Structure formats: structure tokens, C-alpha cells
Fold this sequence. Notes:
The complex is a heterodimer of chains A (206) and B (71). By secondary structure, chain A is α+β, with helices and mostly antiparallel strands.
Amino acid sequence: xxxxxxxILRVAVGQVQASNLNDLYNVYEYIATFAGDETDxxxxxxxxxxxxxxxxxxxxxxxxxxxxGIMRVDxxxxxxxxxxxxxxxGSIAWATxxxxxxxxxxxxxxxxxxxxGLTSQSKVxxxxxxxxxxxxxxxxxFITSALITLLDSFCDEWFNSVLVSAGNELxxxxxxxxxxxxxxxxxxxxxxxxxYQRRRKPGVGG
Amino acid sequence: xxxQAVVFPDSIRVVSVRRMRTRGSYPSCSLTAVVVVDGxxxxxxxxxxxxxEANTAMNGVLEKLVSSEAL
Lengths: 206, 71
């Protein structure tokens, strides 16, 4: 199968916590801006490379109990106004270089660093909860300046288009059902406060 | 990863960092950081035609801030 110009892809990047076997997912979306069709394999490999680069930037801040898992990529679209998965491109291991191994103890698994992606719509906000952090990068209710430095670089990389081949790029953004279209990522915000995802609390959810 | 990353010193508490970029023929990047110095919030910012330029400018602002506040 191939990916064509205008197709929208949803990428679920997974990691497994060995300490409690909770899965941590971050979801990203891209729109294909292609001069010609690309094979699913080429697209999967290109996205995996981008994710590997992004997460490698922050690997020293992520606890070593995390194991990078599988990256699942689906094509999504608004079908009758409802955001739906049109087809699955596949699932592959995404981390080649990324090898989390932050030193020391880690913060509770519900705690995370938060980066937000901005679009042209104020209510279309792309939130990425990154964890599980090691304690060295958290001070009180805030993440440290060192982690903010790394997260800003992480965001800079996220903003970059994924180059599949010459003339074929995937541009980050989000397909909003409420707003009825795809909105490009225009900016990012790194939050200084420690954020929380209850679903990642041990014993909650799957 | 940008060749020139912004480096926020440990002596400054950073509340948030906002990075806006444009794509295409006329790329630009603006950075805005909210920091706390002496218990007061300060907003600092930088601009550049590329991410690297904005990062370099922001590093300059941070250096000035640290030296002026003797942090």
C-alpha cells in the first residue's frame, strides 16, 4: 500500500514501564505533502527516525525502567464528519538510538513534563505528556532549567517536517473533528510546571 | 535538533518557553520565555530568520540577564 498527498497519519508512539507494566503513549499527527506516492514502509521508517531523534534528545531525563515499544501508524480522516481510522499502515519498533536511562530514582509515573503544540485555532492544542522523569530533573512543583532546555530542543525537532524523500514531506499538526479540518503545528510551549496524567498512575487503566 | 540550542541556566526558574516558527520561503522563529528573577516574573524574547538565529539571540539575552542580576 502507499501513502498519497493529503493523507493524514496518526502516530502512536509507545513505551512500556517495566516497574508497573503501564504503557505510555504519545500521539502525533502529520499530513502528507507529497509530490508522488510513497510506500508504507518508507513512511513508517521516516517517522520512526524522527521519533527516535526527538526522544533521543531527552533520553537522559527519562527513567531507565522505560522500554521503547511499538509505534503504530494509522491513516485517519473525517468520514461523515467523524474522525475515523481509514486504515492501518503498520506497527514497527521506533527506537534505534533512543535508550532511556536517566540516573537515580524516578518521579511517580503519573507525573510528566508537558509540551503543547499550538495551531491557528486556540482550542486545538496538541499536548504531549513526556515521562517517566527521573527526580534529578524535577525541583518541587517545577521541572528544572536543564530539562526545559532539552524540551525546547525536542519541540524544535517536532516542528521539523519528516522528510520521506525529496519533495515528499510529512508536516506535523492535528486533524480536529470539532473544527472540521487539519491544522498545522505553528508553535510550541514548554510548561515549567510538572503535569499529571492520572491514567498513568499504577493500577489505573490498562 | 537545532545546531544551536537555547541553554537556560539553572539559576533561573523558567515558567514557560514559547517557540513560534513559520515554514516556507520566509522562515522565521520567535522565542518567548517567562522566567522568575528575584521573585518577579519577567518576559524575555528573541527573534531570528531561523531557529538557530533565534536560539543564539535568546542565549545572549539569558547571559545578560544572569550577569545583570548576578545570579
